[in-house]
Amino acid sequence: MMQWLVFLVLVTICCSKLIGVIELNRHGARTPSEFSEISNELFYKSNFNHLTLNGFNQEHYLGIFIKDRYTKQIPLISNTYKPEEHLFISSPLTRTIFSATSFIQGMYPEVAVNPIWENNSHVRSNDLPPFKNTNLTLSKADLIIIDKDDDKLFHAAKCKFSGEQIKSKLPKTTVTNITDSELRLAIDDIKSNIPEIFKDITEDIYTPEILQKMCGFIFPVTYHYENLFLLNNQTITTLRKAQISKMYSRRIKETELSKLIISPFYDKIKQYIEMLDRKS
Which residues face 116 on adjacent strands? Predict the structure, then answer.
């Protein structure tokens, strides 16, 4: 019986045909979400979750990698841009729009990205330099940007599934506990190395909430700067525990799964699959 099952699986694999790929990308590296004054100094007047040069490069290289994969390793798309082969969609946040733009130009550097703002025809996005005496023509790749008032990817208030239904589908992960001793040692270490981020904090600093706030600043900065903060290894470990606790202590309705299920992306993905299925 097992031999027949293996045979059927192999036959299925051999006879299968890839008809399409749906890729969900996170935005590239960004600036910190906390302590904007210091972030301004570290990131050239850019702060609060803006895409950084590293973030642009990450998405650009990802675009190069994806094109290589699906033109050479698994032939599925053309080497030059063809509109009928792609559907690019972004949420209405600056860091995701720029990430998508960089990703597209990594895949097809010869095209100009053409943003299409849903339900907002007043946004100018096609301004070109005043070329003279040239026959330059630009091939354009459309980037659909979900209208902010309709976007539910980041606002799951109207989720069509109950909290229990979603909870049953989520991975069960134990949130790591942080002892009072670990908390105090980490805060003291951060305070001795980065005293300026404590100057405007008036409440008790020895709390899990303050430690989680530090995560929103320290991890993005240390990703972009080597050896800027000389924090000891135990502090880094405690910060990682705090970050995990922050991620998994969110309300169910704010989880990534529920955001996706009730978002316009979900319906567009279903439509795209149905279209691919019809073409095959």
Answer: 144
Backbone φ/ψ region at 213: left (φ over 0), alpha (ψ -120 to 50), beta: alpha
Burial (0-12, 13-18, 19+ Cβ within 10 Å), 157: exposed
- Please give the Cα distance from 189 to 11 (Å, whole number): 59
Helices (H), 171-263: 180-193, 208-224, 233-248, 256-261
Distance CA 158, CA 253 (A): 9
Residues 231-263, buried b or exposed e (16+ Cβ, 10 A)? beeebbebbebbbbbbeeeeebbebebbbebbb
Burial class of residue 177 in the structure, from the number of CB atoms within 10 Å of its CB (0-12 exposed, 13-18 middle, 19+ buried)? exposed
> What b/e string do you get for 85-123 counting C-beta neighbours within 10 Å, with b at 16 or more?
eebbbbbbbebbbbbbbbbbbbbbeebebbbebbeeeee
Residues whose CB falls within 8 Å of the CB of residue 42, separated by 6 or more in sequence, listed in order: 221, 224, 225
- The radius of gyration of the chain's CA atoms, rounded to the nearest angstrom, is 23
Using alpha carbons, list the distances in angstroms from residue 264 to 18, 22, 271, 280: 25, 15, 11, 25
Q: Name, of 10-19, 167-176, 213-222, 265-274, the range with top average pLDDT.
A: 213-222
CA–CA distance, 214 with 236 (Å, rounded to integer): 11
pLDDT in tens, 111-163: 989 888 876 666 766 666 666 666 666 788 989 888 766 655 554 555 555 55
Nearest to 116 by CA among 88, 153, 149, 96: 88
Q: Whole-prediction pTM value?
A: 0.72
